[in-house]
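Task: sequence design from structure.
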């Protein structure tokens, strides 16, 4: 039997292998998978860039990161919210948005890697994120309608197209009209379009970043009218000005909080991922509801033309832990809310009024409920227009916000307010009540050691211990200090401005070497002493004594 040989023309039918194809066949499989995963990231960047640009045509709050972030905040348990504020402070929103971006990029990596094997499925996965973003935008309390879904959907379409295009450069071209997913051929010699991939990836990256930058710029322009309206406002002299701060109310002690908190240093705790910028010239406030005999709609100019009052008022956030920073004192100017309600025919429950809850609604969808009795009991509850001599900063509620002495902010201090409805506690639960917080929340008597700081190392001898105490609408009567387990000793109280402001105090301590624990407690003007019982912030504010540990050298 003769030796078997290939047909004479078999070799001629085998195509020559070029040097380029040899290098392609030698490329490790992980490299192509890495490029596919990178394609997913580029698709994610494209989605975000195009969504940002599309949000400029709708509104900034409709962008997917903001919409999904807002939905996450709405569904975050109170314990998690407190943990975030405790660890990240006023940067909690930035951390949330970075977390959303990180999760998005991880999924984008996974989708890119999967698209190398199932190209159309990977692109479809990008669209799922668009649907999630659109659903979040449509279900936000401040949603303006179906157009809020457009940024997420436009971004998803762009991302899916980018992923499909880039992965197509990494796989063997399929047959024309192919409709099914094409699995990756296991052969290491499969060719791919390197030059086409690099060009497409660079173009996608440039276009995505350009879209994002342009969208961010246009969103900034959208707020120009609001910025211009604020810049044009000159607050009139109040008909009822605040008295001068008494001499000695602010102690000249290093490390103590200033008596008046500057606008830039005033704490900000809210759920708005994008600070609303409202044009004062178009802003309106609607007042209506149960027991409102004469409903009204007011403009900003309507409020400016009224008799304005100016008052020093200390605000405290219910998220303030014992010794925490979320308390500040400012000079507010605005309209008495009780006068406005009375003009609309509203009577408090003690006088037979049918409504016991005032629900304030913000332009960002926040709802805050306040007791009508407290708002109308004679305290200086204000619709504030100004803060420390200037129109309200945007971050603190421009053009108008509520300020009610003696109540935690979550039941009184509605920022960017647009509506007031009179109702009852039985018939309506506002935002925070639905999440387990109290319906009524008067501020608890509190005190804080500002200096020395925890773990400080002062020198032996005279050490000034100082801080602040507050019991808004009741006033502070006494502050006491204890060193270690020694007796309580009275601190020196600074002059009092009003019962609605905090009060500074100091205690000259003859410090001895070694470790020591300093503890403070306050007593308000009703005789109620600050409790030592430690409680969480939820449901109606933290309680307990503030202590600092120091080592005296």
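Answer:
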């Amino acid at each position: 039997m003769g030796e078997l040989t290939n047909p004479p023309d078999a070799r001629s039918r085998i195509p020559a292998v070029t040097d380029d194809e040899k290098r392609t066949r030698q490329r490790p499989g992980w490299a192509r998978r890495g490029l596919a995963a990178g394609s997913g990231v580029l698709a994610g960047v494209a989605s975000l860039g195009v969504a940002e640009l599309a949000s400029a045509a709708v509104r900034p709050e409709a962008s997917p990161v903001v919409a999904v972030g807002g939905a996450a905040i709405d569904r975050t348990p109170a314990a998690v919210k407190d943990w975030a504020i405790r660890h990240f402070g006023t940067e909690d929103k930035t951390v949330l948005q970075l977390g959303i971006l990180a999760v998005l990029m991880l999924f984008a990596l996974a989708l890119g890697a999967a698209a190398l094997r199932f190209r159309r499925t990977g692109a479809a996965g990008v669209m799922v994120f668009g649907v999630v973003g659109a659903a979040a935008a449509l279900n936000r309390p401040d949603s303006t309608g179906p157009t809020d879904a457009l940024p997420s959907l436009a971004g998803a379409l762009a991302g899916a197209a980018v992923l499909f295009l880039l992965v197509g450069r990494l796989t063997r071209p399929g047959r024309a009209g192919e409709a099914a997913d094409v699995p990756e051929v296991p052969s290491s010699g499969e060719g791919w379009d390197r030059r086409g991939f690099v060009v497409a990836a660079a173009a996608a990256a440039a276009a995505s970043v350009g879209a994002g930058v342009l969208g961010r710029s246009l969103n900034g322009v959208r707020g120009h009218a609001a910025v211009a309206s604020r810049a044009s406002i000159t607050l009139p002299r109040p008909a009822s000005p605040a008295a001068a701060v008494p001499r000695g109310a602010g102690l000249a002690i290093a490390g103590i909080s200033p008596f008046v908190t500057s606008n830039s240093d005033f704490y900000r705790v809210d759920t708005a991922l994008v600070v609303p910028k409202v044009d004062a010239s178009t802003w309106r406030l609607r007042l209506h509801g149960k027991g409102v005999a004469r409903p009204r709609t007011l403009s900003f100019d309507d409020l400016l033309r009224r008799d304005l009052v100016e008052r020093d008022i200390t605000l405290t956030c219910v998220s303030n832990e014992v010794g925490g920073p979320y308390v500040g004192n400012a000079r507010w100017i605005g309209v008495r809310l009780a006068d406005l309600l009375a003009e609309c025919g509203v009577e408090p429950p003690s006088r037979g009024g049918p409504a016991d809850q005032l629900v304030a609604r913000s332009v960002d969808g926040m709802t805050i409920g306040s007791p009508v009795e407290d708002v109308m009991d004679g305290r200086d509850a204000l619709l504030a227009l100004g803060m420390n001599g200037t129109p309200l900063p945007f971050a603190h509620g421009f053009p108008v916000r509520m300020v009610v002495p003696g109540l935690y902010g979550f039941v009184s201090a509605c920022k960017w307010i647009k509506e007031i409805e009179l109702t009852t506690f039985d018939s309506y639960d506002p935002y925070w009540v639905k999440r387990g917080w109290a319906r009524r929340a008067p501020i608890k008597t509190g005190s804080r050691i500002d200096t020395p700081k925890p773990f400080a190392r002062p020198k032996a001898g005279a050490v000034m211990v100082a801080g602040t105490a507050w019991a808004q609408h009741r006033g502070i009567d006494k502050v006491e200090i204890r060193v270690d387990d020694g007796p309580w000793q009275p601190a020196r109280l600074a002059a009092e401005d009003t019962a609605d402001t905090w009060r500074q105090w100091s205690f000259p301590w003859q410090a001895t070497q070694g470790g020591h624990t300093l503890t403070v407690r306050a007593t308000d003007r009703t005789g109620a002493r600050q409790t030592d019982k430690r409680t969480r912030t939820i449901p109606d504010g933290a309680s307990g004594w503030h202590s600092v540990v120091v080592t005296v050298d």
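Residues 1-12, 17-28, 174-189 have pLDDT under 50 and may be disordered.
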